[in-house]
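Q: Given only this backbone (194 positions), what sequence would you predict?
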């Protein structure tokens, strides 16, 4: 069961209107499932749209924003809770702590960095929360193909590749995250044994 979902997404809207539509669908799907939304606390781009849609639908939205970004990304003033923190590192740590699952919507390098960091934390066994990529209109095809390439080249273990669910529809992705088995913990001294 996911009670709080951390959503990473662009501080821009992107070119394809499908990105905004998928953001709204994910926000509404979370509210229908009584899942709180945890996100970066901004009012701009897909981030703002995610928060506004979930709030309009009657949901709970928790933002986490560094003081230095409040002006640039325009801190959202209507959230259920807004945590103002001292740094990007604190933002990511608190977002991860407040959530029991993670989804990346389309976004730029900020979104990618946040997703990849929490993905590496899973690989290291620092958490066992499910992770997903919402591949709207094939936006993340290149990333999914790169990860498959990393598995073939033996830089990424197949079981760690499998931890990142990739779906094109918000409901299908939430279903997968809610059903996901927690990843096996790896014994780093002897990876063939847990
Ligand atoms: P973007 O996907 O580049 O539009 O950025 C989405 C969000 O990620 C924005 O709130 C950025 O402030 C945030 N972001 C960008 N770089 C980082 C970083 N290194 N650590 C944490 N958040 C970041």
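A: Predicted residues:
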């Amino acid at each position: 069961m996911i009670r709080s979902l951390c959503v990473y997404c662009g501080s821009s809207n992107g070119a394809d209107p499908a990105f905004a539509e998928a953001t709204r669908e994910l926000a509404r799907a979370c509210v229908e499932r009584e899942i709180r939304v945890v996100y970066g606390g901004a009012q701009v781009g897909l981030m703002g749209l995610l928060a506004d849609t979930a709030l309009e639908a009657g949901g709970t939205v928790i933002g986490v924003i560094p003081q230095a970004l409040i002006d640039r990304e325009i801190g959202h003033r209507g959230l259920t809770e807004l945590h103002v923190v001292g740094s990007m590192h604190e933002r990511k740590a608190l977002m991860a702590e407040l959530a029991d699952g993670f989804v990346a919507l389309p976004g730029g390098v900020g979104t990618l960095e946040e997703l990849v960091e929490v993905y590496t934390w899973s690989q290291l066994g620092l958490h066992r929360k499910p992770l997903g990529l919402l591949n709207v209109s094939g936006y993340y095809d290149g990333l999914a193909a790169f990860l498959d390439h990393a598995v073939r080249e033996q830089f990424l273990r197949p079981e760690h590749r499998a931890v990142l669910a990739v779906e094109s529809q918000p409901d299908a992705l939430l279903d997968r995250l809610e059903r996901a088995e927690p990843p096996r913990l790896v014994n780093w001294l002897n990876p063939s044994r847990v």
